């Protein structure tokens, strides 16, 4: 029995390693494409061989062309917009989740149900009419226009609410007896206990905003307001595509969330395991 269990664990480990390799290969291929010339990239595509994944003559020229082409400005715009979305979004989502989890008011279940349905609707389905509304309010080509759609994330509220429901109600009741109001209970009791959930919600907000393409394309067409995904897409145009620079831009934009997720993955796992267990 012990040998069978050990064999099962080995099999699962091998399967997990194979799946991880399949996810890793596209990232490695993009890195290889960023480190070689466009001619070498196409020359190694057919037939596929080991040299498809290994640059023959590595070069940093593609990254240099990005820097001189203004891609750094786009990365900075993405960083500013994402950071603002994180700060404002966590404040809004955490207070909304606290209200839906702890406060008792008429229609609470209905509000939560509407919120759940809202994050099941793809954002791309409402992006075009929403952009027209934002232009009416003169929010085009502004950081506020880029940030606002990302601050109210239904999945982040859902995650935080599930975690807040797991906090013993006796803590809030004892705080009430001591004269603490709802804001004090939220700030002094629930927030300190919800670090994993806050990190998980923050990662959701971060990924949503960092990889956004359609919304920035619609609401911020100005070159000065370009974000990284839009800047990468614009490397391909009527006169051709700079595939080396595209690969380099993809590597740079993927590297930031990859490092963030690797650093906070433990908290993200804890937030998922501690949410959604109560309703």
Automatic annotation (TrEMBL):
The chain crosses the membrane at residues 48-67, 79-105, 111-134, 146-165, 185-208, 215-237, 243-264. Keywords: Cell membrane, Membrane, Transmembrane, Transmembrane helix, Transport. It is found in: Cell membrane. Residues 75-264 form the ABC transmembrane type-1 domain. It is a multi-pass membrane protein. Gene3D superfamilies: MetI-like (1.10.3720.10). Belongs to the binding-protein-dependent transport system permease family. This is Sn-glycerol-3-phosphate transport system permease protein UgpE.
């Amino acid at each position: 029995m012990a040998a069978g269990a050990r064999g099962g664990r080995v099999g699962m480990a091998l399967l997990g390693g194979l799946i991880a390799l399949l996810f890793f290969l596209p990232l490695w291929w993009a890195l290889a494409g960023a480190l070689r010339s466009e001619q070498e990239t196409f020359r190694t595509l057919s037939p596929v061989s080991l040299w498809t994944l290994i640059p023959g003559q590595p070069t940093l020229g593609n990254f240099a062309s990005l820097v001189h082409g203004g891609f750094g400005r786009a990365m900075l715009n993405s960083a500013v917009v994402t950071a603002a979305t994180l700060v404002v979004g966590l404040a809004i989502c955490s207070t909304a989740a606290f209200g839906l989890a702890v406060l008792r008011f008429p229609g609470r279940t209905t509000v939560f149900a509407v919120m759940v349905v809202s994050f099941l609707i793809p954002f791309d389905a409402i992006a075009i009419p929403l952009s027209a509304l934002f232009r009416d309010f003169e929010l085009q080509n502004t950081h506020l226009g880029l940030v606002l759609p990302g601050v109210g994330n239904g999945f982040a509220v859902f995650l935080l609410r599930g975690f807040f429901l797991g906090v013993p109600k006796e803590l809030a009741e004892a705080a009430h007896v001591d004269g603490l109001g709802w804001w004090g209970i939220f700030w002094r009791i629930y927030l300190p206990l919800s670090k994993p959930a806050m990190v998980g919600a923050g990662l959701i907000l971060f990924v949503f905003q960092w990889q956004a393409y359609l919304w920035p394309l619609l609401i911020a067409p100005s070159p000065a307001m370009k974000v990284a995904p839009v800047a990468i897409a614009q490397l391909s145009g009527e006169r051709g595509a700079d595939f080396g620079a595209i690969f380099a831009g993809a590597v740079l934009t993927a590297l930031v969330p990859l490092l963030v997720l690797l650093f906070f993955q433990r908290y993200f796992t804890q937030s998922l395991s501690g949410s959604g267990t109560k309703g």
